[in-house]
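Archive entry: two folds, one per protein. Generate the first.
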Amino acid sequence: MDFSTKLINWYSVNKRELPWRETRNPYYIWLSEIILQQTQVKQGLPYYNAFVSKFPTVFDLAKASETSILKLWQGLGYYSRARNLHHSAKYIVDTLDGKFPDNYKDLLKLKGVGDYTASAIASIAYNEVAAVVDGNVYRVLSRYFGIDTPINSSTGIKDFKTLASTLINTNQPATYNQAIMEFGAIQCKPKNPDCTVCPFQDSCMARKNQMVDVLPVKLKKTKVTVKYFNFLVFIDHHKKTLFEKRTTKGIWQHLYQFPLIESKKSLTAEEFQLLNFKEHYLEIEVLDYSLYNEVDIVHKLSHQHLHTKFWIIDVKSLPKDAILIKSLTKYPSPVLISDFIEQFGF
């Protein structure tokens, strides 16, 4: 029995029942694939259901406001995925007259869609023979064939794609692609896979050579940078505060946050006073201020660790662009900010 047949047989018995597997609608499949980028199924499933419920068609998503989409996405992280989702929905509606791209080549034209996502949608929605290569597939192939080429090197990316393309079942590309991804997710897991119940235990090179814990090989990640954030939580007598939209590119673009001052290290109350934050808000009469958290709240992103302090600043009144504190939860904000809002209670 060849590799693809054995994999499909395993899938027919062991696959999880998931809503995006019950449809060939490319919009729903696209939604699921974008949500599941950098996200596990358990975490992504409630978001998928929420998006399908609120935006049942690509037309609904296209006409929605970016703020409402980011709010619904809140907590998933990697917010560029949500912005790209909205951009592509408008492209499909405005440029393609609502007709979803129906092949790998045209799917690549959608913002936020790369080789893997285009292959997944093309094969699952349209049965196109386009092999997927995601983290699960890299792991399965590197272990089964005993390949130690780094999966995030240019050579590895090319070689694994070529190998995947030779293995895909051309008669059942949709089923095969879902099978190999599912196999990597629940059987050939990153840590401590149960090789004793694996259908490939007798032919897996990693098991034969005791390299299961070694493969796949990945080049070291980009160096993590450390930043120090000081959020200014203004509160006036009218129960208003300042909440700003991040317009610069990078993390949290178009999300909302309290006014931010970045420092070179974690500040004490005395050092914060020397920072003279009032210079940044000359029109605001400060009555008093205090530190909410003595110990930095460390928020870890893929390439950044944010050491954060929240400073509670009592003021007499705020500018006209201030918002009511009770409306804070209506705005999309990073988890770091939304968690503070919930915990502080105002």
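Generate the second and append.
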Amino acid sequence: MASAPASGDLSDVATTDLMTELLRRMKCSSKPDKRVILVGPPGCGKGTQSPILKDEYCLCHLATGDMLRAAVAAKTPLGLRAKEAMDKGELVSDDLVVGIIDEAMKKPSCQKGFILDGFPRTVIQAEKLDAMLEKQGTKVDKVLNFEIADSILEERITGRWIHPASGRSYHTKFAPPKVPGKDDVTGEPLIQRKDDNAEVLKSRLEAFHKQTKPVIDYYTSKGITVNLHAEKSPKDVTSEIMKAVS
């Protein structure tokens, strides 16, 4: 959709874009508010499910890495502070990240709620997020925990092959190319991302479990965690999610 000029003048925005957005907002107005956190290891399917959840409930998708980059690019006061830390090679503080999330939530696209992905990663971050939401008079409704065995993830991830020029992806078991190692369309060789190997995955999973378990325990004690069977087909996982958040 074409973005409106900074002045708020909509005269140059195409009528079809305006109507599409208007109809979307009318459809969204009757939807209940939802504030959802997605937790899961690499390759668990969060990237497949979040757009479906976002569209169904008219939520905004907040990925902290993207938001940090956007705040830095927009030179917001918080973005400038984040850039200063990043330039020094320091980690951006939890308070800054929560501030940037707070800022993002004020946008019209987040009016019906949000999906948070990649945050909180620690219990301290979860507590700071809760405190910020409490000030707004809201709270996290559901934490969706994409549970899946490491061995299944290894099979999913180490079998991935990419055609670099187009981004087309294949899987040796689940979606093999017609000719092994070659792109179906161009016949060019496929490559594997350097992160998509068993060794890298093992260390990423170890870090994930160590870091995330306390966060899941924190939300479980509040009674808002739902454990999903992320090894099921995407369609089955979608219906589990819809049941969990409805």
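Annotation attached to the second fold: The first strand starts at residue 34 and ends at 39. Residues 198-221 form the longest helix (24 residues).
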